[in-house]
Amino acid sequence: MKCPFCGYTESKVIDSRPTDENERIRRRRECIQCSKRFTTYETIEDVPVIVIKKDRSREVFDRNKILKGMLRACEKRKVTVAELDEKIDEIEAQLQSSVDREVSSSRIGELIMEKLKEIDEVAYVRFASVYKEFDSAESFRDELAKLGE
């Protein structure tokens, strides 16, 4: 960290604490060369996840789109919005922890199906029918057979 008084590039941290809104970290520093103190603030850089869609276009990840799709699949089922939020948090954490900042929409669809299967099999089949574009009753039977395995 560069000292604002003398320009020296080394300092030591004297005190560190989160700000009131816990969005940043406030650090009191002391310059090694001139011994003057100054304050710095650190923020976490949020690098967005980019979704590569089927048509190869790209857009920023939007958890609301996932929530809408999951809500539609869970319509008239005993699944709470809190449960869905928790599963979306898990999906988002998985995507954020990935080294790659770009992810295909098909990968997100697979993650959604995994999470729906954990909470409600009917919602899973509903989502899968749209996601996998079922075009016959046989497609439904095949997916239901996979559930029984």
UniProtKB/TrEMBL annotation:
One of its GO terms (biological process) is negative regulation of DNA-templated transcription. One of its GO terms (molecular function) is ATP binding. Its cofactor is Zn(2+). Residues 49-139 form the ATP-cone domain. InterPro entries: ATP-cone_dom (IPR005144), NrdR-like_N (IPR055173), RNR_NrdR-like (IPR003796). Keywords: ATP-binding, Coiled coil, DNA-binding, Metal-binding, Nucleotide-binding, Repressor, Transcription, Transcription regulation, Zinc, Zinc-finger. A zinc finger (unnamed) spans 3-34. It comes from the Bacteria. PROSITE patterns: ATP_CONE. Residues 74-101 form a coiled coil. Binds 1 zinc ion. It holds the Pfam family Zn_ribbon_NrdR. Belongs to the NrdR family. Negatively regulates transcription of bacterial ribonucleotide reductase nrd genes and operons by binding to NrdR-boxes. This is Transcriptional repressor NrdR.
